[in-house]
Amino acid sequence: MPAPLSSRGWVFAMLLSLAGVAHAGEPPLHERIDALIDAAAVGPIAPSCSDADFIRRVYLDLAGCIPTIAETRAFLADPATDKRAKLIDRLLASPQYARHLSITWDVMLIERRTDKNSNARDWEQYLRQSFAANKPLDQLCRELLTADGSDEALRPAARFFLNRECEPNLVTRDVGRMMFGMDFQCAQCHDHPIVDDYFQADYYGLFAFVMRSSVFADAAKKVTLVAEKADGEASFKSVFTGNAADKVVPKLPKGATLVGEPTFAKGKEYEVAPAKGVRGIPKFSRRSQLGGMLAESREFRRNMANRLWAQMFGRGLVHPVDFHYLANPPSHPELLTLLADELATSKFDARAMLRELALTRAYQRTCDAPNPADLNLPPAAELIAKLEARRSELTALGDAQRAAYDRAKNDRKSLLEQFDKQKGELAKLETAAKTANDAVAKIETEKKSADEALAKKQEQATLVSNAAVRTSVPVKKFPDDKVVAEAFAKLDGRAKALAAEVEAETKKVADLAAKLKTAAEVAQVAQQALAQAQAAAPQDKLVAAEKAVLDAEDLLADARYAMAALDAQIVTAQAIGEWQAKKDDPALAEPAYQTLIDRWTVAGQIGRLRPLTSEQFAFSLMQASGILAGQAATFRAAAEKSWPATLKDVPEAGKPAALADYVEQKVYEAVRGSIASFVSLYGTLPGADFQATVNQALFFENGSVVYGWVSPAAGTLTERLGKLEDHAAIADEMYLAVLTRQPTADEKESVATFLKDRTDRPAAVAEMIWALASSNEFRFNH
């Protein structure tokens, strides 16, 4: 008998059922993804893209560059039915994947800021090694939030804080955006004016984790580190309403509160006390706690899943990716929940998630919209009626989750009221216990001093008494010796006096021992009373109650998102109706149909056309022109002739992979200057709309960088094609190299016509390569 579903599992099963997806067994993740997208589709679903489009697309998304001619030819000629899956696996295991992911995450995390307080090269290498080793995403993000630079292995990770100069407001905003998918910037001075569920308390709950951090310049080691204080509290007051809070407890966005923060006696807060030139290290780090709480955050899991989806599809299920909130629902709510849960189950395995996304039919759909003449859609009214039939079920689900949420909040409120009543008594007991413990400590100090005085006095008395005994011998033998007699009398008198003092000190020690025993008994009673009161206090119950509220809030949000998805489907059905009403009038039908195409694309029913990033653009141009292949051949030949030190100790079985990794890194170092030129002109942040500029056009048309790549230099595509006589062969090679596809008959004809009367064959070939590289087909990922 299967185990009962959790409350979240029940809601998810309900949503699947409402979507018409059977819940039977656990098929592969990519099949479950497709089932959810197909079930939510309103209108046609585009067929799979061609092999040529697929190889180009998956290379760009997983390796950051178009494939070589040889790779394209081999893939297109391969008759195997599983060749796409094999290609995905090969790319995910390649050094190009690690390099591409490191660039992608560098842009996401640093956002093309200038380098500050850290070494950009070390940072890039840290990211590359992290993705090459498939470091879990929660571990990677935890390192970014907790690294202070003192550990040399993790020093590059401190760049996340150091590049922002540890400015707490900037760090708060970026941690909220990048780790949790929420941009709280406008909630710093008041509740967010546009987003109803972004509150000032959310901002300062996160701010409280990072506000104690600062930049520390270690002059001795000549490095910049992250320092952290042991004290400092966050407080806020709304500039609009006057609502305020002091000593804000650190809290994850829409998540758990930090509990159990210890208190230390004054002067005991640090492992290393701060001083001039000395970086203080607190015994308790709020920043470290933030890193440790990441994996348990639902919002963190959803944000990471959404960003991986955006990497592969060009748009997040939540868009923009840093604006997760109720009024901006995911396009497929149940899908985002599935991806977030699967990511956590896989221990935040980015490679495994990207593999499943690439295997989906949704990822492999063509970007070509269906021909409206080929569509045979049912009347919009029929579609709307079918969708509206689900509304009552979703309404009931939402009402049930609202009731559960209200109950959880009321339970937590009752516990808080109970806790507030006990606070006064606890405070008294804490004071009594502290007073009793202080009394014990004071008496212990007095007794220690008395013990030391008694021991000293006993030693003195013993020595004097022994001296008196020894002096009594000559007194008896020489009774007439007055000097000796006087010495004896003095020693004997002093010995008797010291004996009396020892007796007094002994009594004092005994009295203090008795007082200490009594004080210890009082302290024990006070401590027991405090412990009993603390045990009776609902602290653990409060933690459980908070979790219950968060879980209920999540389920309520899921229900709301499901209703929003239904509304979006109905809007699509209404758009179908508008198009159906106008399709006989081309002037009206065209914009109405474009609206449908846009909605179908967002819904994953049609592939998304997206511009290449500046790095993808630069790498792909160098790949097409033969620059990368030439560089790789040079470095590989040199390495095979004389193995670099980094490869000498690699086991024989691992040398091919190590050599490929070495060559990839050397090629990247050789071309990074050219890439920087593209970034300076084409560089935008992920998700930004593409709009060509005059400077970009002039750079591409007249720039020496691009001109050098397409010129007929040794080893370039231009030089190779310039030697060919057959116009069809030139067209074939050129289109495969630049556009990753075979040319059409018309394109072959155009190439032949262009070359027919040209005597400067290399220059003519260079012009054609430049024309293809400057085309929209090359500039976009399709």
Description:
The protein has 782 residues and is mainly alpha-helical. Helix content is 64%, strand content 4%. It has helices at residues 7-18, 29-40, 51-63, 69-77, 83-92, 95-110, 120-132, 137-146, 159-162, 168-180, 200-210, 286-293, 298-313, 333-345, 350-359, 380-388, 391-477, 482-536, 539-582, 586-602, 614-625, 627-641, 645-648, 655-682, 694-702, 704-710, 717-721, 727-739, 745-756, 761-773, 776-779; strands spanning 213-218, 223-228, 234-237, 244-248, 270-272, 281-282, 610-611, 780-781. A two-stranded antiparallel sheet has the order 1-2. It has a two-stranded antiparallel ribbon with strand order 3-4. It has a two-stranded antiparallel sheet with strand order 5-6. It is elongated and about 145 Å long. It starts with 6 loop residues before the first helix and ends with a strand. Residues 1-23 have low confidence and may be disordered.
Keyword list:
31 helices; 64% helix; disordered N terminus; 782 residues; two-stranded antiparallel sheet; 8 strands; mainly alpha
